[in-house]
């Protein structure tokens, strides 16, 4: 006798669907906006956006902004909510299946007197103190903000904002829960959802900012989002939320016009900014301790870094140790030591960084 085995398959009714990896961004101008500036800002998103997020930016309407009638004055909240209503009446977001809309206006009044704002992009599902945080669904994404926090406002005629080519990328980053410099701490998605600003005057002058830093005086833009784990790691925040935003709207555009092109893959390259600071003068024992950080323009291409040193300064470079994060403690004893870094993957390493940090001996 054979037993008849009935196999009953239950199909679970979990809504799992194919995820999109393109973030469709529509640019819209309000009356009086500088159209050329708006289009330049909009198209800059392609190069600023990190492909390590697993997503790419696609510009609706071929990267050309669309003018609408809406109020270009009043507070940032007033302008943004009026623009969203005006856009909805026209059905532009639906027409282009846009995940995100950036509205370009003339001036964005700052909420604090005597300050200047270059934009405004609230995302309170992921950033406000005490609010809900990232809550993944069956697909691992969180679309709770898809109908509320999909839009930002950007100033185009405020001359104080003109030196900052990353202005649109900065506001765009806020929509993914990326935050400013500390403080305020811990109102963004993660405790390290912060921008980096490095300013040191000795022994080598350096003054660098990442995209979410705003505009510290005289600081040079690194062209990327911060990625120092545990300290300033906006990239990790973007990696968490990017796929969610890419799926705010699903389905293909019926609006025509075509896309703005992909971001392109980046390749292994030497770190560009080596900076550091003194931590301890004679600890442990007679060592001088420095903390050294660097920036990798293509972190997705590297798996680790080699720390090289020249001691005394000017001697041949010697390989010291490896690290998987873009920072390391450095202990020097007896003579100054110049630190340079290589980016490496599992096959090869970049050349030594052109920039270096002199970890001086002072004990
Ligand atoms: Zn900001």
Helical content stands at: 10-25%
Q: Low-confidence parts lasting 5 or more residues at pLDDT below 50? A: 4-13, 254-264
For the report, how would you describe the main beta sheet?
6 strands, mixed
Bound ligand species? zinc ion
Average of pLDDT: 87
Protein structure class: alpha/beta
Percent of residues in beta strands?
15-25%
Q: What is the gyration radius calculated from CA atoms? A: 24 Å
Structure description:
The protein has 363 residues and is an alpha/beta fold. 15% of the residues lie in helices and 23% in strands. Strands 1, 2, 3, 4, 5 and 6 form a 6-stranded mixed β-sheet that branches. Strands 13-12-15-16 form a 4-stranded antiparallel β-sheet, with no helix packed on it. Strand 7 and strand 8 form a beta hairpin. The longest helix has 15 residues, at 76-90. Zinc ion binds at residues 170, 174, 180, 214.
How does the SSE layout of this entry go?
Blueprint lengths: L21 E8 L5 H14 L7 E4 L6 E2 L8 H15 L1 H5 L3 E6 L13 E2 L30 E5 L11 H8 L22 E4 L5 E4 L10 E2 L12 H13 L26 E8 L7 E8 L8 E7 L7 E6 L3 E6 L4 E8 L12 E3 L4
Helix pairs in contact: 1-4
Summary tags:
363 residues; six-stranded mixed sheet; elongated; binds zinc ion
How would you summarize this macromolecular structure in one to three sentences?
This protein has 363 residues and is α/β, with parallel strands linked by helices. The protein has helices at 35-48, 76-90, 92-96, 167-174, 234-246; strands at residues 22-29, 56-59, 66-67, 100-105, 119-120, 151-155, 197-200, 206-209, 220-221, 273-280, 288-295, 304-310, 318-323, 327-332, 337-344, 357-359. Strands 1, 2, 3, 4, 5 and 6 form a six-stranded mixed β-sheet that branches.
């Amino acid at each position: 006798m054979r037993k008849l085995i009935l196999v009953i398959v239950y199909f679970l009714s979990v809504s799992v669907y194919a995820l999109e990896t393109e973030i469709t961004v529509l640019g819209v101008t309000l009356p009086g906006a500088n159209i050329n500036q708006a289009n330049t800002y909009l198209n800059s998103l392609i190069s600023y956006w990190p492909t390590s997020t697993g997503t790419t930016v696609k510009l609706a309407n071929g990267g050309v902004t669309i003018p609408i009638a809406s109020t270009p004055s009043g507070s940032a909240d007033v302008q943004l909510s009026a623009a969203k209503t005006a856009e909805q009446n026209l059905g532009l977001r639906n027409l282009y299946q846009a995940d995100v809309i950036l509205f370009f206006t003339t001036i964005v009044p700052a909420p604090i007197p005597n300050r200047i704002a270059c934009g405004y992009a609230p995302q309170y599902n992921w950033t406000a103190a005490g609010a809900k945080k990232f809550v993944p669904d069956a697909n691992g994404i969180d679309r709770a903000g898809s109908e509320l926090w999909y839009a930002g406002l950007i100033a185009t005629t405020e001359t104080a904002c003109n030196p900052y080519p990353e202005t649109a990328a900065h506001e765009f980053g806020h929509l993914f829960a990326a935050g400013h410099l500390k403080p305020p701490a811990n109102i963004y998605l993660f405790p390290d959802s912060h921008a980096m600003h490095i300013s040191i005057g000795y022994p080598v002058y350096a003054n660098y900012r990442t995209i979410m830093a705003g505009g510290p005086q005289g600081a040079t833009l690194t062209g990327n989002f911060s990625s120092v784990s545990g300290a300033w790691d906006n990239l990790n925040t973007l990696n968490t939320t990017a796929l969610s935003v890419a799926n705010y709207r699903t389905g293909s555009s019926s609006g025509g016009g075509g896309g703005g092109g992909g971001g392109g893959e980046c390749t292994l390259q030497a770190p560009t900014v080596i900076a550091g600071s003194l931590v301890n003068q004679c600890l442990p024992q007679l060592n001088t301790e420095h903390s050294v950080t660097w920036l990798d323009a293509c972190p997705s291409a590297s798996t680790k870094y080699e720390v090289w040193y020249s001691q005394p300064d000017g001697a041949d470079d010697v390989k010291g140790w490896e690290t998987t994060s873009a920072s390391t403690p450095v202990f020097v004893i007896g003579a100054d030591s110049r630190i340079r870094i290589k980016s490496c993957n599992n096959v090869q390493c970049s050349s030594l960084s052109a920039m270096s940090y002199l970890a001086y001996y002072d004990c």
